[in-house]
């Protein structure tokens, strides 16, 4: 008669057991069903590059001490290295049994107890188990039979496998359009740079194409923040960036979608450029960071996906981690080659924050298939806005700078703007807004009137253009030099080092020996810089004389469009070494002639009353 009434209601512990198992098989958790019966379910968590982790959930509502001990002993006999056993029961003797089992089996089993209210009474669950325990309170248990419950679990496992297959299909269907378009842009702009750049005008061409110059950005040419990240002047740099983009961008764009990927690139480039501009907004020297900040933003996004794996299949997580690991070697090379490491860090941080925080979410298992109309619209809006901003900046830079034209007046107008900034006049018109040209205009704006300077401590004077400003002592003691100008502000600087002889030389042979020694020391010092890659020797040294005293000049080419000259003069009183740095952007009529500077060197002690008195005494002795 009782059998006709059917099975009675399930106990609270059994209902909690079924709720927890259902939560564990949620599509958002990387858990797969391994085996099941009425009171025991074994689950498997596949982990990238690691053995699986197993979770066994036991309904111990009808267990006694002996039967539970036997079940635990059976579990330890399985060749599983990482096994977690969750026992659901309210029975008062259970904690003592579990503690003894933990002492007996050690690390082979990790034991947990959960009561009928879902409260953890023993152990500290983590990972998917902790997430399922937190989520199981939202699962509504049903009074279904054991067979119905088993069928539901089998169906959940099948649905989960189908969801993973659909996820992979959607991932493969994502076409990395933006990656290939960016590749074409980088290669195309480099080709245009080589086409338009003259033999000595590479830096000018980059300037006209929109390279990032902090001073120009701070005065409103905001397109340089983005265009500067798309320009390269060396085949090695553009080749490396293209290779890294192809290897990393392909997978990242599929995970994020074209719209979010383009926005990631845009914001990473912007962050990298701001890291180069903000510390020195008045700097006139171009900052060459290239596409590297965007690549570091992609690397940051991959790292975030490799860490924030919720909702991703284990196979996808393993693939993302391999791609991120593969990007470490080229990123290390980019870091070594780049002189703008702050820009790289800025791009990396942006990628980590945007993807790690979920502001730019990737494709997940829980996403609706097909995607909703609003989701499609947001992605398309991101792609359109990012593409318009990037390509609009490129077009603005090229049509304002006109790097393709052979008309010298375009570059002259641009040169006048640069010169106006270098002279501190500000408010100079941009190259695209000036009309007419004045070949002598740069000289008219520059104050090139000669100014005599007395070098403190050595009694030597020389004459320099007023444009270079006042002397600035550098260093202390015998290593002291006097600096004129400022490479970052005036596009040129001159370091003057003077050493007075202990006693004036009386013979020309002494002068020649001292000159050869000084030139050898200067050559050795410059040779170290050449080996370090900072300088490249241009041509042969130029020898000349000043008042029959020997002098020489060496010319070098440096990085970032900087050139250098070093001149040495030895006369009977002093040794003078001039170290001159100047930018390719400086008009030729403002570049110093070091031979003229050396010709103006004057021994001020010779005109002093003391020296004149000594000279009169010597003449008196000769007459006697």
Key features?
disordered N terminus, alpha+beta, 49% helix, elongated, 16 strands, 18% strand, 22 helices, Rhomboid-like fold, single chain, 624 residues, seven-stranded antiparallel beta sheet
Condensed summary:
This protein is α+β, with helices and mostly antiparallel strands and 624 residues long.
Structural account:
This protein is α+β, with helices and mostly antiparallel strands and 624 residues long. It has four domains: 7-172, no CATH class; 176-401, Up-down Bundle (Rhomboid-like fold); 408-443, no CATH class; 447-610, Mog1/PsbP, alpha/beta/alpha sandwich (Protein Transport Mog1p, Chain A), CATH 3.40.1000.10. It contains 22 helices and 16 strands. It has helices at residues 12-24, 65-76, 94-105, 127-135, 146-173, 177-196, 202-209, 214-218, 224-227, 235-256, 258-277, 292-307, 314-326, 328-337, 341-356, 373-401, 408-422, 441-445, 487-490, 508-531, 594-599, 609-623; strands at 31-36, 40-47, 50-59, 83-88, 110-114, 120-122, 450-455, 460-465, 472-474, 481-486, 492-500, 535-546, 549-558, 562-570, 574-583, 602-603. The strands form three sheets. Strands 9-10-11-15-14-13-12 form a seven-stranded antiparallel β-sheet. The chain has a six-stranded mixed β-sheet with strand order 1-2-3-4-5-6. A three-stranded antiparallel β-sheet has the order 7-8-16. Strand 14 and strand 15 form a beta hairpin. The chain is elongated and about 115 Å long. Mean pLDDT is 82; it is low at 1-6, 426-444 and 610-616.
Alpha carbon gyration radius? 38 Å
Number of helices: 22
Instruction: State the major sheet.
Output: 7 strands, antiparallel
Overall structural class, as computed from helix and strand content, comes to: alpha+beta
Based on DSSP secondary structure assignment, what is the total number of beta strands?
16
| CATH hierarchy class name of the largest domain | Mainly Alpha
**CATH homologous superfamily descriptor of the largest domain:** Rhomboid-like
Q: Average the pLDDT over all residues and give the rounded result.
A: 82
Instruction: Provide the number of structural domains.
Output: 4
Distance between the amino and carboxyl termini:
154 Å
What is the overall silhouette?
elongated
